[in-house]
Amino acid sequence: VLTNDDFFYVVMDRYHGDLQQFITDHKNTQKPIPKELLISIARQLADALAYVHTPCKVNERGDVLPSIVHRDLKPDNVLMNKDGDRVVIADFGLCKDAQHDERTFAGSSSYMALKIFIHQKTSPASDIWALGVIIYELATLRLPSFSQHWEPEKAKEFFVDGWRPDLSAIEDAFVKMVLEKIFVLDPAKRPTAGDIAILFQTLNTSASEPGAQNSLLDEGHRPYGALDDTNLKVNSSWTPLMRAAAAGDIKAVKRHLSKKGKKDNRKDMALMIAARAGHEDVVELLDPTDKYGVTALMKAVDRNDMEMVELLIPFQKTKIAPGKVKINGRYMCKGTALMRAAAHGYARIVELLVEHEGGVRRVGWPALMLAAQCYLPNHPFADPFVDHPKCVELLMEREGSISKWTELMYATYRGDVDTVRSSLHMKGSRDVGGWTALMYAAAQGHEEIIELLREEGGMMNNDRQTALMWAARNGHPGCVRLLLEKEGGMLDKYGGTALMWAVFQNKPRCAKLLAEREKDIKGARGETALDIPKGLGCTEIVSVPMVSDLFYWH
């Protein structure tokens, strides 16, 4: 860049034309593009994408640059010299930082991946899809049949599970193999630009068979160009462990594991650097799955660490932790990361995970039910990002069916009285946990809806819990009054009463209403509700008829 007074002069390479004109010229003359030239062009494009996608590149001042998504890769934006043996990607006007995945619709529809049409989201995998379309076009001189502008609903109907691209027009076995890897619906399963670059770089007479190349690609998503000595020094605040994590150097990572808690000047730890670089083995080494099966992804969910969750999803989605965990008063066994997020009420993380883990029935409750039953309407959650109702909304489409939630249950949970009135023909239905709409009304404190659902009174869920017990547990005295006559005195599977639940949860107003009816009922161990404060360590109990007067918590 040259400057002269108020003028700037940028010296750039000059190119003869663009790839679109090159393809058009071959189409007009009906001459196929030679395989050697096709491979050369594809390799250079993959090399260029691998560079812009990597998070460890550096500018001329030595500043670390983020991973960049082009978002409009197409032949028009690829410049080439006269002989066609050198190409470069141009027109980065629509590019963005790959770590900030805002909803957006940008680019040329013929080269857009499915996720953009449906979710308006882009990622490095979106550029890979566009690269695949270009390779297809170089091989056939026309676009694939599925490359067009799709309305979201039409895209969902066409690109269903099990979809495979029509590659019958591709004659070369190697090119077909590469495109089969690229044109998959799950962005996380597409090869990286670095993977594709390595394939083209290693294409030679000894490894030119499709099977050999296929094994190269399947050996494990090796990130492109593991950082060289120069790149390892680009961030002076990186510790030796961070440099090893970025480079995928397992031996070096093991040597420096004791430093894994340190942060660089961007507040990133080695774990985040390894995840960004795509080193799954380093991620597992830095934050190993514990003896209960809890993965780094699940731990990130528990911390509500959205950025870390997004980085770890490709490596650890759909994994199940067989151990037991208690979140917001509910026990969970054999849970996924999505189930944990739902129980916590972390709506932003649920939105990230639902497309990967939603709708699959595990042992125990679906995420939808965990979100619904861990929500306490009167609880002052400290975290402003806790939003159980939003989690339920996000999960309803994927998990409503496997949870056996009726429209009546969903309306009851939301407190939508009008929809409840129009759905009363669904009374008596139970979800997979045995819950009725009345139980959800009681748990949420919807008194008007309880009046409409009185006929469900006396029903018990799979744990033999009643609507009254949940009203008492969550502190809804108005609901307790409405349910007491029909459900007072009933016992859950552990011999517990609604009064015991109210005492244990320190809900004195509910306890006072229940005392006369249930204060003398003994549980499975022979204890009454009056014995619970003693077991919880209360040092002074004044014995008076009303249980509410017994609460003297220290």
Q: Which properties best describe this structure?
A:
554 residues; mainly alpha; Serine Threonine Protein Phosphatase 5, Tetratricopeptide repeat; 3-stranded antiparallel beta sheet; ANK repeat; Prot_kinase_dom
CATH superfamily annotation of the largest domain: Transferase(Phosphotransferase) domain 1
Low-confidence stretches are 204-210, 219-234, 538-554
User: Helical stretch count?
Assistant: 28
User: Would you tell me the overall average pLDDT?
Assistant: 82
The major pleated sheet works out as: 3 strands, antiparallel
Evaluate the radius of gyration: 30 Å
Beta-strand content estimate = 5-15%
Q: What is the CATH architecture term of the largest domain?
A: Orthogonal Bundle
What order do the strands of the largest sheet run in, or round the barrel if closed?
A: 3-7-8
GO molecular function, one term: protein kinase activity
Keywords: ANK repeat, Ribonucleoprotein, Ribosomal protein
Protein name: SSU ribosomal protein S8E
Domain Protein kinase: 1-203
